[in-house]
Specification:
This protein is mainly α and 336 residues long. 70% of the residues lie in helices and 4% in strands. It has one domain.
């Protein structure tokens, strides 16, 4: 996506700010969702409530702000919007929770966040698009930091179904960035997430069994971090901030940056989730986790350096070549 050079700086800064905001909003869902689950909701019921509530909000906003143009857009882009709902919303959420139920949570998170790696591999091998070396370096560094943040070695055990689900969640996360990158400006972010959320909510009805959900939890005082809060307030946060705002800002950020850069910067979500859990739930961080968070942020910094203010030339030295070239100096990095 190209912009006039005079406005490129603003677009870059805006894209970086939005993807960080999106990651923080996504990360904020964990502590509040955990409180609702401990109060009586099943994990899938919490996910369904989050997705269905966000879809309802976004459908109303789309109708109010876009009018008939929203329906016209849905009809014109029905296939990619349906794929977005099935894969990027329902698939990513459902497979992650399946993985987390059969593997240590840290391992499940690490597997899901292989998504940005798959983005780079897909763009390099399938789309035959040059991949910025700084994006590849950033992803690699962030993966190391993430392993430290979630302390992946604690309680490590392997389960074939859990492993497959975690890798499936990673593929779905990669599809989230790639689908947005391919749709570009063709579909409005509000419409994208309204349609995707509707599809996902319908798909998850049977496994989530919302008719058996303890709805009274929303009216109860729910314990959280030594305090209590009305269940509906926690649900409103998860729906409004951690889903509606998170998805819409993430959509816009991918358009302003690219799938490979937005994917690399999304690692800040894990850091945000850990820090918010520390603040809200009192889940203290170890020195290793703090070091891991710093490494993740370093990886995000390395990745954002590949956001250029103008269109890169075909011979840009910071891209990974698409065809064999003479041997690369030892200090260079290539994606294999």
């Amino acid at each position: 996506m190209a912009y006039p050079e005079t406005g490129a700086g603003r677009h870059r800064a805006g894209g970086l700010a939005l993807i960080i905001l999106s990651s923080v909003c996504f990360g904020g869902s964990g502590p509040f969702g955990k409180a609702l689950i401990e109060a009586g909701l099943s994990p899938l019921q919490a996910v369904w409530m989050r997705i269905a509530g966000a879809a309802a909000v976004l459908i109303v906003l789309s109708a109010a702000l876009r009018g008939r143009a929203a329906w016209t857009t849905v009809r014109a882009s029905l296939a990619p919007l349906a794929a977005y709902g099935v894969v990027a919303v329902a698939g990513c959420q459902g497979l992650y929770f399946l993985a987390a139920s059969r593997l240590p949570v840290g391992v499940a998170i690490l597997l899901e966040f292989c998504g940005p790696v798959l983005v780079l591999v897909w763009m390099r091998l399938v789309r035959r698009t040059p991949v910025r070396r700084s994006a590849a370096r950033g992803v690699a560094v962030a993966m190391v930091g993430l392993a430290l943040v979630v302390q992946v070695w604690q309680g490590l055990r392997l389960d074939a179904l859990g492993l497959a689900a975690g890798l499936g969640a990673a593929a779905c996360q990669a599809a989230y960035f790639l689908l947005l990158d391919r749709m570009g400006d063709a579909v409005d972010p509000l419409v994208t997430n309204a349609a995707g959320g509707f599809v996902a909510a319908v798909l998850l009805i049977l496994p989530a069994t919302p008719w058996a959900m303890p709805w009274h939890v929303l009216g109860d005082a729910v314990p959280i971090g030594g305090h209590t809060a009305p269940g509906w307030v926690l649900a409103a946060w998860i729906i409004g901030i951690s889903t509606v705002l998170a998805y819409v800002t993430g959509n816009i950020a991918v358009r302003l940056l690219s799938a490979q850069i937005a994917g690399a910067l999304s690692y800040t979500e894990a850091v945000a989730a850990t820090l918010i859990a520390w603040i809200v739930l009192g889940e203290h961080l170890t020195a290793v986790q703090l070091a891991g968070g710093a490494i993740v942020l370093t990886g995000a910094y390395l990745a954002q350096r590949s956001v250029t203010p103008s269109n890169p030339t075909p011979a840009a030295p910071d891209t990974l070549p698409l065809t064999p070239e003479p041997p690369i100096p030892a200090e260079s990095t290539t994606l294999t």
